[in-house]
């Protein structure tokens, strides 16, 4: 992540020789040109997990230098930094990232330079607005004495932890709502029947391609990771439900073909009455049984056809499965987010 910050450092150097006429009468501090900083001892701070750090410039560097009578030096600079952060995307797009910023002296060990946070610590501008994240006050400020094997000694280190909480509003509108509508649209195929085969196939296949295209675009928004994200689970479930609707159509079509062949065979052998394609008298029962049973007469004397019953049940089963999935997915996601 990129940071724009005002970094203020203060230290006391007893070796400084300051002429008395440098200060105005009654003044304990004097502002010096920033280039004087090059002539002073510096604590050589650096950001351990930074990729790029630079002082902001326009016509000159945005920095200031103040010298006090007690030989305290105050240096402030407007800086830009790109800081590395090990992010975890298991809960994406409701993830919360905890990113540390580590500050350490590069050459001076702990017994030479000891770093401490100032009274103000780290403050974040209340006007700061991020596009996808909400950032609050820093979680913690730490002052550590850390052994560094690369430099062979103990060094003073300052650590501040930032909490970035992703805002879900964008993904509700761009991801979850559209994918839910596409899944619901695929259920309309259960009402079309087999007399509208092209329309039914086109509807389900279009829903499938829409979800796959949406999923591909969403995966390009974040770095590739080896584990499954919450968004992957959601989109995979939506795709599976649409694929199941397509599979249901194939099964229904196959059963309908068997049913038509069954009717044709029975009509040729005159095993059924002219006005009924399916009955359950003893003569039929003694013939070769069909499995699955393609048709039957219910208790009310109405003919029931298997493929039609599957379509009717799918109108209830598919929405029920999706509602159960949503009722499990969102509470688990919200619970895992609250524990971060």
From TrEMBL:
**Where's the Neurotransmitter-gated ion-channel transmembrane domain?**
176-290
* Compartment(s) of residence: Cell membrane; Membrane
Which is a Gene Ontology cellular component entry for this protein? plasma membrane
Q: Which UniProt keywords apply?
A: Cell membrane, Ion channel, Ion transport, Membrane, Signal, Transmembrane, Transmembrane helix, Transport
SUPFAM superfamilies given in the database record? Neurotransmitter-gated ion-channel transmembrane pore (SSF90112), Nicotinic receptor ligand binding domain-like (SSF63712)
Q: What is its main location?
A: membrane
The way this protein sits in the membrane is described as: Multi-pass membrane protein
Tell me the ranges covered by the Neurotransmitter-gated ion-channel ligand-binding domain, including all copies: 1-167
Q: Which Pfam families does the record associate with it? A: Neur_chan_LBD, Neur_chan_memb
- PROSITE patterns in the cross-refs: NEUROTR_ION_CHANNEL
Alphabetized GO MF terms? chloride channel activity; GABA-A receptor activity; ligand-gated monoatomic anion channel activity; transmitter-gated monoatomic ion channel activity
Q: Which family does it belong to?
A: Belongs to the ligand-gated ion channel (TC 1.A.9) family.
Q: What is this protein called?
A: Neurotransmitter-gated ion-channel ligand-binding domain-containing protein
Q: What is the originating organism of this protein?
A: Photinus pyralis (Common eastern firefly)
């Amino acid at each position: 992540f990129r940071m724009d910050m005002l970094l203020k450092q203060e230290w006391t150097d007893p070796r400084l020789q300051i002429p008395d006429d440098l200060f105005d009468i009654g003044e304990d501090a004097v502002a010096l040109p920033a280039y004087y900083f090059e002539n002073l001892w510096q604590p050589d701070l650096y950001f351990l997990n930074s990729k790029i750090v630079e002082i902001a410039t326009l016509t000159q560097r945005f920095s200031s230098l103040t010298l006090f009578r007690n030989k305290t030096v105050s240096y402030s600079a407007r800086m830009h930094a790109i800081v590395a952060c090990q992010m975890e995307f298991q809960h994406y797009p409701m993830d919360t990232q905890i990113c540390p910023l580590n500050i350490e002296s590069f050459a001076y060990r702990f017994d030479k330079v000891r770093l401490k946070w100032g009274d103000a610590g780290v403050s974040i501008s209340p006007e700061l607005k991020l596009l996808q994240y909400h950032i609050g006050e820093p979680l913690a400020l730490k002052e550590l004495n850390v052994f560094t094997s690369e430099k062979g000694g103990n060094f003073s280190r300052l650590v501040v932890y930032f909490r970035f909480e992703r805002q879900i509003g964008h993904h509700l509108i761009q991801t979850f709502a559209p994918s839910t509508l596409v899944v619901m649209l695929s259920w309309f195929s259960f009402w079309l029947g087999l007399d509208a085969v092209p329309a039914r196939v086109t509807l389900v296949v279009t829903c499938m391609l829409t979800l796959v295209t949406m999923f591909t675009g969403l995966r390009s928004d974040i770095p590739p990771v080896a584990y499954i994200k919450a968004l992957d689970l959601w989109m995979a479930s939506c795709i599976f439900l649409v694929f199941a609707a397509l599979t249901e159509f194939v099964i229904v079509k196959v059963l309908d073909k068997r049913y038509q062949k069954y009717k044709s065979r029975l009509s040729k052998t005159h095993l059924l009455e002219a006005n009924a394609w399916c009955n359950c008298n003893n003569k039929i029962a003694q013939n070769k049984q069909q499995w699955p049973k393609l048709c039957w007469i219910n208790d009310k004397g109405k003919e029931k056809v298997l493929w039609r019953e599957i379509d009717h049940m799918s109108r209830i089963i598919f929405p029920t499965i999706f509602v159960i999935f949503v009722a499990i997915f969102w509470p688990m996601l919200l619970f895992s987010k609250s524990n971060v």
